Structure formats: C-alpha cells, structure tokens
Amino acid sequence: MDLNRTFARLADDDTITLEPSWAQGRALFGGLSGGLMLAKLQHTIDRPRRLRSLTVSFVGPIDTSGEIGLQAQILRVGKSVLQGEVHLTQNGGVQAVLLASFGEARESAARIAADSPPPAMPQVGQIPAIPAGAPDMPAFLQHFDIRWAHGPLPFSGSTQAEFGGYLRFRGQEGAFTLPHLVTLTDAFPPAVVTLLPQPAPASSLTWTLELLHDPDGADMADFWQYRVRTDYAADGYGHTEARIWDKNGRLTLISRQTVTVFG
User: Fold this and answer.
1) How far is CA 68 from CA 45, 55, 61, 131, 197, in A?
2) pLDDT beneath 70: ranges in the chain
3) Fewest C-beta in 10 Å: which of 100, 174, 218, 243?
4) Which of 223, 238, 222 is nearest to 162 (CA)?
5) pLDDT of amino acid 132
6) pTM for this prediction
7) Alpha-carbon distance 230 to 234, whole Å?
8) Where does the record place a coiled coil (predicted)?
9) Under a CB-based contact definition with an 8 Å cutoff, are residues 249 and 117 in contact?
10) Interatomic CA distance for residues 149 and 118, integer angstroms
11) Degrees to nearest 5, angle at CA 208 with 62 and 127
12) ∠ at Cα 2 (186, 255), nearest 5°?
C-alpha cells in the first residue's frame, strides 16, 4: 500500500479500506491511524499551515479489514492559530479522535534553542535490521526498517524501560510528508514492555506529538534517530516520552504517550 496515494485519496474520500498488513495485533497500527487523521485534516484547512502539536485519543480497536470513516472539522481560525478535529469511525462508532493545533510564526522575545543532541549510538550501518515478516512480530513492522541500537528488548523482564535506535520506512516511495513522520514515530514498541518477562498486549491510550521543525528536505531513504524513556509505570499504565532527530541530528519531534499494559 503506497502511503502517498492513500493520504492523497483523503482529499476526496471520507472512507477508506486498508490492508491487513498494517495490523498491530487485533487492531490497526496506531501510527497509521494518526497519519490518516492528520492527512484528512490537512486536506480540510484552507492552505498549508505549520503544525505545532496534535493529540490522539485511541477510543477503540480499529479493524484493518473493515471500512474506516474520517470526518474532519475546523474548530476555530484565529489570527495565528488554527485548531481542528478529526473523528475516525467504524461500524457506527468513534474509534479514535485527533485534535491538532497549527500556528503561524510571529515575532517574539521568547526564544530557547532545543539543547538536546541525539544520543551516542553505533552507526546505523553497524546494526542489523529487525527481520521483516518474522512470525512473532506484529504485521505492520514489515513496512519499517528498524535498527535497535541500545537498551533492553521487549518482554525481557528488564528493570529499565528506555531504549533507542534508528528507523525509516521500507518499500515506500515519493515525497516524505508530515503524515509520514507521524506514522513513522510510533513504529517502535511502547517502552514499558521491556519490563514484562513474557509477551503481553499493550496499546496506546493517548498520544501527543509536539513538532519543533517541519521535516523539510527529508527523504524516504533517511534514517531517523529515536530514543524513548518511561517516566512512570504502575497499575497497568505507563507514561513515556520519546524524541526523534533527523539525519542532521536536529531534534524534530517530541512524542508523549499513556500506554495501557495488560500484563
């Protein structure tokens, strides 16, 4: 499935059917849910605008074999800020909601550069890719080239819940857009699963992205550097923060998630 064509279709279509290969367990991969909703909203606004942040609430599991509906609306347009909302629906119910804030640049004395260089990791060429299509891997991972650079692996029973690596798409062509970056950001597993001694389900409950820079000049072949840490985990929930750097080492995006853990 070509993501560029899929995102472009949403300019005219309010419904779409996806391929089962984008499944994450029994539901649609959450990163693609976010990418689809953002693409739909971008087609709805009057002109290209600078995304500042978005929040996704995952209400229920999305069946990859069923038709999905996407309804976008603009909530308010101010002098600098536009805010919009998208509902992703299936079988008559809302399965996910996105709220996004776009903000134009303006003069301000408040300026702090992002003082967060990428962590020291082995060169990406020195790290083997996670095999595509392995029987014990979620189906959607076949669409990503992931290199695990440091930190414990999922379900290793570790006392640490942070790790890092590199990632990019596998098998995609054409322009790399903001919906692609949103989709890509969620490809690594939730950090809290490293604490579990054996496989168990985990899923995102809420997801907030803060965009520091547009992915200008990014290419499908580029690797993005990723690091995630868990701030707190208890009672079947985990709270994590991830950071993503572009090929030039520029901090581009901050991702925060509340994760439900069933184990």
Assistant:
1) 21, 19, 12, 30, 35
2) 109, 111-112, 114-115, 133-135
3) 174
4) 238
5) 76
6) 0.94
7) 11
8) none
9) yes
10) 12
11) 85
12) 15
Q: What is the per-residue burial (b if ≥16 Cβ within 10 Å, else e) of 168-203?
A: bbeebeeebbbbbbbbbbbbbbbbbbbbbeeeeebb
pLDDT, tens digit, 9 for 90 and up, residues 105-127 = 777 767 667 668 888 999 999 99
Amino acid present at 177: T
Place of tokens 């030039």: 248
Cβ contact 17:38 at 8 Å: no
In this prediction, residue 136 carries a pLDDT of: 75
CB contact at 8 A, 54 and 34: yes
Task: Give the pLDDT of residue 111.
Answer: 67
